[in-house]
Request: fold
Amino acid sequence: CPNTRNYTSVQPQPTQSAQRAEWLMKHRRHVQGRTRSIASGNAKKSNANGTSNLISKEVRQFLKLFTREVCMTFMDEGFAACAMRRERARAEQPQEVQARGVPLPADVLDSLYSQVVTQLLFQILGWTEKEASRVLQTVVRQIKRCFPPSPNLSPQM
Reply:
């Protein structure tokens, strides 16, 4: 967020969770824009005893859709958290650096993003540091691709 301090009037600031929820609503990706449900109308008791191809196919379809939704939700959370951390790092820069519009170096951003993603993997999925290290760079790379190019940002990639 740009530094918009106004010392003549103090406005209440929304809480961080409210800001995050608002940000997610604006930026959340919707693959198809509709909710799918598992079709249970054709499943019969006889299918459970004998041929369960229909149930098996439905379960596989559910797992596929569920996995996609969980992945997208995690990436949305990761993107929101990284964007907030990037803005906080910008705000913590010295005033003269902010005035000149000097972008944050890519290695600093990468380090911040890695910290955020590691924390999310631990909090949301309960992963250990070793487990997180296997996917960390890939997730950070994906998150960096989502950021729009901006003259105030350092090059992404």
